[in-house]
Each structure stands twice: as C-alpha cells, then as structure tokens.
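During the second year of the project, the team shifted from modelling isolated chains to modelling whole assemblies. The rationale, set out in the original proposal, was that interfaces cannot be judged from single-chain predictions alone. As a representative example for this report, we include one of the complexes processed in the last quarter. Its constituent sequences, exactly as entered into the pipeline, are reproduced here:
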Amino acid sequence: MVELDGRRRVIIENLSPAVDNGRFAAKRVAGDVVVAEADIFADGHDVISAVLYWRHQSESDWREMRMRPLGNDRWSAEFPVESLGFYRFTIEAWIDHFLTWHRDLRKRVDAGAGDLDVQLRIGLQMMHAAAGRAHARDRKKLQAFMATLESDEPVEDKIDDMWSEDLLALMFRNSERKFATKLAGEMPVEVDRRKSGYSTWYEMFPRSAGQGGHGTFRDVERELPRLARMGFDVLYLPPIHPIGATFRKGPNNKPGNAASDAGSPWAIGSAQGGHSAVHPQLGTIDDFRRLVKTASGHGVEIALDIAFQASPDHPLVREHPDWFRKRPDGKIQYAENPPKKYEDIYPFDFESEDWQSLWAGMRDVFGFWIDQGVRIFRVDNPHTKPLPFWQWIIAELKKEHPDLIFLAEAFTRPKIMGWLGKAGFSQSYTYFAWRNTAWELREYFEHLTRPPVSDYLRPNAWPNTPDILTEYLQYGGEPAFTIRFVLAATLSSNYGIYGPAFERHVHQAREPGSEEYLDSEKYEVKRWEPSDDDMSDFIAAVNRIRRDNPALQQNATLRFHETDNDSILCYSKSSGDNIVLCVATVDPHNTQSGWVDLDLEALDLDANHAFQVHDLLSGARHSWRGGRNFVQLNPHVVPAHIFRIRRRVRTERDFEYYL
Amino acid sequence: MVELDGRRRVIIENLSPAVDNGRFAAKRVAGDVVVAEADIFADGHDVISAVLYWRHQSESDWREMRMRPLGNDRWSAEFPVESLGFYRFTIEAWIDHFLTWHRDLRKRVDAGAGDLDVQLRIGLQMMHAAAGRAHARDRKKLQAFMATLESDEPVEDKIDDMWSEDLLALMFRNSERKFATKLAGEMPVEVDRRKSGYSTWYEMFPRSAGQGGHGTFRDVERELPRLARMGFDVLYLPPIHPIGATFRKGPNNKPGNAASDAGSPWAIGSAQGGHSAVHPQLGTIDDFRRLVKTASGHGVEIALDIAFQASPDHPLVREHPDWFRKRPDGKIQYAENPPKKYEDIYPFDFESEDWQSLWAGMRDVFGFWIDQGVRIFRVDNPHTKPLPFWQWIIAELKKEHPDLIFLAEAFTRPKIMGWLGKAGFSQSYTYFAWRNTAWELREYFEHLTRPPVSDYLRPNAWPNTPDILTEYLQYGGEPAFTIRFVLAATLSSNYGIYGPAFERHVHQAREPGSEEYLDSEKYEVKRWEPSDDDMSDFIAAVNRIRRDNPALQQNATLRFHETDNDSILCYSKSSGDNIVLCVATVDPHNTQSGWVDLDLEALDLDANHAFQVHDLLSGARHSWRGGRNFVQLNPHVVPAHIFRIRRRVRTERDFEYYL
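Output from the structure prediction step:
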C-alpha cells in the first residue's frame, strides 16, 4: 500500500552549504572548517538525534559527527577539511526514544511524579535492546546499568544512575536507528589550496620588461625581487605564444604591419607555433621553465593566460579546419560583433561535429603548461565558450592536479559569471572596478561575500587591467590609485593590479569616454624606465599587513559598519582574535570626516571596556570606547586607516596587586 | 570521452514556482494564471529561444508556450490553470542561430556593412534546413522566401523580405532544437478550488446551538440564515462523535462526571461508536446529512474536525489494540506532556508494527465523512502525527476528490507548520492571534504572502479559537474585537472566528495569564441567548466588502505602505482594476492619527492625477492626490478605513467639448 516506511518520522531539509541543492560543490580552502547545517524536525515533541557523515574522496569510510541543535529546528556540525579535492557530507537523523524517555524522566522526577517504576521498566527495555545491538565492551557496560535497574535497590538510587553521562554516551552509540531518515543526496565540497582564497596578483607584459628592445623571460626574472618586495605572490603574464602576422594590430589597435609592429599577444599562433609554443622574442621554453623556477624561489607563482582563439596563422587552422566554422564562401568565420569585425581572430567552433577532439585538444594545452610547472591559469573570456566545456575541462584537469587555480576573466552578466564559479573556476574577476561609491561597494561586497554567492564564487578584485582604465582612475589623480588599491586589497582577499601602469599612476586613456590605455601595451612593446616616483612602498606596506593579519586573508567575516558620511566606508574582517577594521574614503579630491558607528556585537567587543585600535599604516594607536568614533581622511596623505583592534586594553585592574 | 553532448550550450536554472526544487507542488487555485520563470543563459552573445511546456495530469500531450526575456537572463511565460489537481511544467531552451543571424543582419544593414550576399546565403542555408523539418504547409511558405533569396532580385529587396514577421514565425516553429537543453525535472503545481484561497469560516459548538438543553444538528440548521447573512461560507463544527466516559472532563477542564458532565468533544469514542459515528445527543447521521444539505442551500459548507486520538472507551481500543502503545505494566499509554497527564486521551502509535492498517483506517475515517458530503476538514494537531502520514493521506484522498480542503491546526514551530503546507494541507492556522503591533503584522504577512512561503502555505487568520483568547482581546474592550476582525478579514483572504463568543465580545479568561475561556464550551454545553448587542452587522459589512472586491480574495498582491504612526497599519491589495487600501489602527484605546505615504508606483497610480478613495465602510468619498495623506482613526467608532481606490477621477478634460 505505502512504498515508503511510514515510520521514518524525521524530516531533513534546507542543507547548507549546498550550491543549487548539491548540484555543484561548495568551495572551501584547505584548513577551513566546514559548518554544515540543516533543518531537522519531526512530529510531536520527541527528542531527535542527528549525525553528520563526511569523507574525503580518497576515503571509503564515512566519518561521523553528532550534530547539535541551534534552535528553531536548525542543526549544525563542523568538520575540518585539510586535503585537496572533494569532500562529501550527508546527514542521518532519528527519533531518539531513549533521550525522549530520559528528558521526560527528569521532568517527572523534578515534578515529584509517581509511577516511576513503570518508567524505569520502559528505560530498561530500551537498554536491553541497545545491549543487543552493542559490541561486547559497550554491552558489558550497559549490563551493569541494567543489573542495577533489575536489582532490589531503592528507586531513588536507580534513578540516580540514570543521570550518568556514560549511560547517555552508551545509549547514543547504540541508538535505535531503524527508522532513521537518511538524506538522499550527498553534498559536495571542493577544497582548494589556500592560495585560491588568498592571493596577490601582479600582471605585466613580459615583452615590456626589456631595458630597450623586446623584453624576454630573462628580463622578467630581473623584476622578481621588486615584485616579491612589494608582496605579490602571483605574476600573471598575458599570452606568451607566437603572434599571428595576418591582420596584425598596430599601436592603439590600428591596423598594423607584421614586419614592424609587435601585435597583440591575444592573436595567438603563427608559423612558429600555437598555444603550446613560446613567442621566440621572449625566449625558449627552457627560459620559461627557468622563470617558473626562479619565481618560485621568490615566493612568486607564474600564472599564464589561456585564450582559446587563433590567429589566421595558427597551425590549428590547417591541422584542424573542422574546429573552425566555415562561411558559405569557403572562408573561415572570424570573430565579430556586427558590425565590428575582428579579422585577426578565429574563434573555435564549439558546435563542430568534431567537438570532442576540440575539447581534448584544449585540455592538452593546459596539460602542456602544467608539465612546464604552471599551476595557475587566468582564462580569457571563458563566457564565450560553452559553459559545460569549462565544467568538464576543469574537473578533468583537477583530477590529476587538485592544486590548480583558474581565474575566470568573464566581464559579463551576473548569472553567467556565477555559473562559471559553479562550474569550477577558482576565482572570478568582478565588477569591482566600476563600484566607486561607498554604497555601491558595500552592497556589492555583501552580495559577494555571503552565501549563496560566496559558496561558489571567489572574487578577485582588480582596480585596473590592460582593458580597464576606469574614469575614476583617469580623473582622480594619484589619490584615486591609493584609494582603489586599499579597497581592493582589504575588501577582497584575492586582488591584483596591472603594472607598472598602476603603481606609476598611468591614467591617460586613448580618447575621452574610453577605458583603453593610450598607447596600450596590448599593441606595442613598452619600456618602463626605473622610477622612484611610484606607490611601491605603499603597496608593500598594505601587502605586509595582509600577510600579517589572517583576518584579511578571507572574506567570510566581512562586516560593514555605519558611518554618517556617504564618502566614508567602514568595514571589518576577523579571524579568531585577529580583528582588522578599515575606514576608507572614496573621495579622491577632498578631506572627509565623520563618525563611524561600530557594530560592537559583531566585533565581539564590550561596549563598557576600552579597546585599542592600532593603525597598521601610520603606526598610531588610539584607545576607543563604545561604537561611535570620529575619523578624518585626507586622500592626498593616506586614504584609509587599517586598524588592528585589540579587544582588551590593560588597566590597573590587570595588575595582581590591585585585587 | 564525454558523456553529455557538449553542444548543449544553454543553462536553465532557478525555476519558479518550485517548492524545494520541485519536490513539492506549488499551490494555486482554479482560475489562477501561473507565472513561470527561470534563469536561462548561454555562453557568448547568441540569441536564445525558450519554451515552456505544461499539462494537466489528465492530459497526455504537453502544451507549449514561448517564453519571453525579462532582462538579466530571467525568462517568463504564463499559463492558466482551470482544472483541479496537478499540473506540471518544464522548460526547453536552445541557441537560436536563425534569430542570432537575423539580429546581426539588422545590425549590419543599419551600419551599412557590406558582405551581405554571404550573410543572405547563411540565412538561406538555415531556411533550407528548417524547410526540411517543416510540415508541408510551412515548407511551402518557407520555399517562397527561399525562392526570392535564390533569385536575381536586388540584395535590398531580398533583405526587405527578411524583416517579415511571417518568416520569423515560420523559422521559430521549425527551429533547430537538436542541441536544446531540456530541464531534467518537471515542476508540479497543485490547483485547488477557489475556496482554498478565499474562505470565511465560522466555528461553533453544535451542542450549544440549543434553546435550552443539548443542541442538535436541527438547532444548527436554524443558525444558518444568521451565518449566511453575516457572510460566512464555511461552518466548522468541533468533533461531533460520541464522547468517552472514562476520565471525562467537567467544566473548566476539571475532573468531571460521565453521568452529569458533557465532556470534551475531543475525547472521541464511546460504546456508541468512534470517528465514524455521531454523538447521539446531536442527532443521527441522517440529521447530519440534512444539515450538510441545508447549509449548502445557504451557501455554507460544513467543515468537520478530524482529531486522530481516542478516548479509553473508543471501540478501536478493543478492535485494534496494536494501534496503541502498551506500557510494561500492560496499560495503554495515555497522552502526556510530563508531568502533565491526559488520561482521557489515547494517542495512536504511529510506530506500530501495524502502521499500514492504521494509516488505512484513518483514511477510511475521512472517506466516511466524504461519503456524507463533507469536503472540508479542519485537522486537529496534525503536527503530533508523522509528517509523511499527512503527505500520503492527503494525496490519497485528493486523487478521488481534488475538491477537498484541509486546514492544519498546527500551532507549532515554523518549519513544521511550513512542512505540513508542503505535504498537502490546503490552509494553515497562523500566529496571527499573537501578532498585535503594526510592525509585527507587517513583517509576518510579508513573510506569509510572498514566495517561497506563499507557494506552499495558505494562511487562515483567526483572531480567536476555543483555545485562544488572547490578552489583547481580554483587555482591549470591544474595539479590540473590531480591530482584530478587520485585520484578519483584510490581511488574509482566508479567515475565521469562533462564535458566538467572538461577535458577543466574550473576553473573560479562566484565570490571569491564561488564554482559556472561562467556562469554556470545550467542557460544557452553553446557551447563547438572542442578543442585538453584538458585532454581526459590522462582520456582515466587512464580509460583503470581501465578496464585492476580488482584491481581498487573494494575498499575492498584498503591499504595505509607510505611515508615520507606529499604531497605524496601511496596506493594499489589488486584482486588476480593483484596488483596496486598508488603513487600520492597532490601538484599541485611543484615537490615532498620522500620515500615510502610499507607494503610488506599486498601486500603478499617477502622482500627478487625483484619484478617488471611497471608504466602503462609511460610504465617504475623498479625492486624493499624491502619496501623502492624513488619516485619523477612533477605535471606538470604527478602527479602519477600507478604501476602494479608483485610479482615475474625471475632470473637465474628460468632456469632449473641452478639447
């Protein structure tokens, strides 16, 4: 009549973390503690017991952890994740008749109720049953309790025995789970290495690293000490492959000349090779391997740009014509956004009959660079390739190399950006560059750093890129650069800058209304003369603060605090006892002052005790008491306070002799 | 290598309505239009086409409706639901290469681009393919377009042809769906009759309907004209079954005497029968059937109370001892909440080995009363029986009788109440009785009337019940009754009162701090002398307004508007052109006045045009302009305005001769 067992009375629902109901993995980094929660309830007033099961993909046995009720039928348990790769968790819960009986026995005794003999006999029945299920050791211990209950001792003594913690532990271990409800699904959690969650990126064009002429990997090596000193731990290089000659671009994206112009590194492929080759003027593949190794010695990882597109001269155009779309006139379809044409770029045709070999070919491109020691990839325009392709290729590659990091360069609509995160990208570029008011920043980062979004998308905040020189930077003067830098580095545990343009405050656009750099490095080789007039020291200081303060190495605890000045943004992050409070102006022109109103409860600060705020940028220390405090920021001096908060300031009461 | 077809590029997610991802049905009533939405997107910039499929459970073929984009990758389509029972819907979406080509052709032409010959050939290829898929009629029409393209006509003329709406319709009908993404699941929608969503309940004890002595069903019949005049359409009777003698309750829940006390109707079952029998003093089963019929003649449906529990004298205690739990001393376990004992009540043991026969027995109880013509059941304490039991029994019963309505009397924790809605209960009692401030009411009703909650839980608001005489009613005087009544009747399309206690303003509790009525009808027979001093006329007026205004017959459009007085609540509901605006005081003692600030946009009102507000209670009409308006409410006169808003007030400009 009824297919289910109608005696499974417990309901489990509304799990977290669970991205799209477990369809995608929730993202965590090694060392995190996963807090798993669920709504667990049943009819009536019986006591429920619930356990969390979890295991790493490499383990065959589930580990078990008892869950605790948080109130309002929400339950929680935590498990640490140390290994890279996938963990799964699920939940089992049941009506615990023994605990119900135990709770009611307490109530009866407290109320002086009679009838306790019968109650003890009910308890005894359950102990008998539990002993029957128990291993020898537990059985023996249970039998001792049972023997007392069956003896002639006074009821009071028997009841005293029932309050034993040992008994509760024994009965829980051997609880009757016959009618337990087990969650049908298992919720996946993917654990990446810590750098997925905390990284400091520097982008530079290797061809501009030369000291005259075309830069090389050797030239880049010479930059490493400077980058390490500034505190960067990822050096991202735009494509390093041979550049096509056909329709080669000249300066400022004008039609160029293959003989004299360097062209765009994103026009990938020439007679000298494609995605697995190195542009000869940069050096050899051995030079590249050496760069990877030298960088590693400086604590810097090389990140490569993966742009799946081909110049008309790419070897694949001949080797795999079936990977490109043909027009009725027999020509290969170039990229276009009508009426704009990009004749120097052929997109791959992902609807090709031969899509499986195309997918495999792309996987092998990654594979080649992984073999050269690269573990971080910045993927160009992933939103113009099929979303299921990314889901497949990232999973494929991470099977062998769970330490890979993929940054999605998808400046596109929010749902597609989100889906790329769900599909496996470790980090995502964001709209940060265009969020300039305090209100916009607060709204956006609250969205990014809280579930559900924070479970699948890790923001990487960039104040500039070779494609993005915002109006704010164009017209805000040098303070605009320090402001945007501090915001990126403290709001987001992952951030990056495109340099040396950034630290040199390069701010001239190609033309009014454009976000393109004038004389952009995308189309020509540049030479960056040595200079002392840049913000390297400020960058180094902020990155040192990031390194010293675990609070800034994650986003989950980001909280905004009220201010009475729309130009001042106030926010905190904490990690255990490490609490960092940032107060930043978003106005690059004028001094701004006002009152901040700290949410002391969120910071776990006592309203009646003074606490110390230590400005990690200026070194100044202040003693604050209560939430309301005055701040003043002159962007031409320094646009932000980065306070470390110490919860407790010593007073005379701390001295022993005071008492 | 890859199991999926990597060329299915479209992603569909985040459907609505979808209760727990489609695990439960979304609730609607006959005549509703279901607005289905989903996030639909793909890589790149190609144009997507999407269709919604839906069908009623009685239909084997899906109907199809094209979806339209709402912006930000959200898509929508609507379908009407007229039949009772289950509908299902799902979605299919694909990259529409023809529409992409068509959009780009428009851009090329607008930009004066060349190369149009090749473009037309690409379009022609797609038309050929579509013609190959098309039925004869469409094929013929497509061939006409193709013939033009293949002719020697000038390119301009060919392009003109491409803008034909006919062509777009033909190409959509025969679109290439080979790589379409079809949603894996089908989302269920359960359609109930309109009364599930709009009903007006009156609860009374039939035994108190007498004019001296124990009331009968015949006495209840005499009440029907009064109830119909007041505008009630459901008459809910507490249990009408034989009452147990063992441990029978006396007045005020004191121990009673089976010989002289009437007992509690919830102590169900005696030698005279159980859940399928009628208490002899109320009449016979034929009398009951007659009552059902007479009521129907007055537009009133009889709702029965189903309380699955037994008095110790219930025939089932002997017939099915296995349906009850035995204690070790051989006695049957009575209900208790230690240390409280309810020895007059035996709960059923839903963990019985014989649970399947128990479930079937309970189903047959419903079945019996359905056979007597009852279609509405108020279920007593459903949260103390297993939740899966309700899911099963309601589905079983509604298979045959989709017009059944079940009201869940579960005053328990929110998640259990919610789950009972998901499991199939048509309506649910709420916490309304204890939400007394304007702020509490607003927060609670915003929670109840918006998705996700509104998709699975239909509130039924009761200002009082035989178990609930709130402090607000005890101490608020007569205005407390009118206030709570107006709020229930206008905030919630389903509401009920327990009378005549309510309309007679009965407000004396058994003792201070208790919500029990003094001398409650639950434990004794009462006689209600005829009285003119009650609020029947007011009730009738409000119920007439509900009947005349479709806006008040649903909750989905409930919107709150700001006021500057914490004691004044302002809210609107609309249904097409029918807009009702309520302004109510929650203070039963003092006159309150203040400014309301209408959200004109939500009401679709023009800030620059006067609109008429017509107080349906007082008959007064005012002309308002703009959102800010002054109101004053004296609870001793009338505690609320129920305005009908007419969007447009005629002015001299409406006369033809003005122009």
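The first strand of chain A starts at residue 11 and ends at 16. Chain A touches chain B through 57 residues (CB under 8 Å).
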